[in-house]
Amino acid sequence: MTPADWVQVWPFFADIVAAGETYAYPLDLTSAEAQALWTKEPPGQTVVLEEDGEVLGSATMGPNRPGRGAHVGTASFMVAPAGRGRGVGRRLGEYVVQWHRDAGFAAIQFNAVVETNTVAVRLWQSLGFEIVGTVPGAFDSTTHGRVGLHVMVMAL
Hints:
Order of helices and strands: HHEEEHEHEE
Radius of gyration: 15 Å
CATH superfamily: Gcn5-related N-acetyltransferase (GNAT)
Helix content: 25-40%
Number of domains: 1
Number of helices: 4
Shape: globular
CATH class: Alpha Beta
Distance between the termini: 25 Å
Largest sheet: 6 strands, mixed
CATH architecture: 3-Layer(aba) Sandwich
């Protein structure tokens, strides 16, 4: 992702966070604060999936923890409304898995997949992730109230 891409990412980032169904980010983030939160510097990376000049989704990835936990990666994903139902999440997910493999990570851990985000849960499972635990009531969904957060892992 280049700094210029953020202009297209910010609107769907803001809408996804405001919807209150998938991310526990602060609701009052400015564009600059959100960009700093989303954009990862090496050894991490942030990418966009773009078609015909339109950004359809973004993923951010890198070590899950510093130091002695840096051999396990993590990632986050957002898909623009124009990208939904078009395989954007899958293509970003496949890229993230391969990026982690190529970088020598031992596994990828998703720390907080909202259990009611069934589209994402199914996608990650189809890519080889498994649910290793669920923290009950850890996410306050706008629609469903307090729901669980899955921890999902894929060994590489």
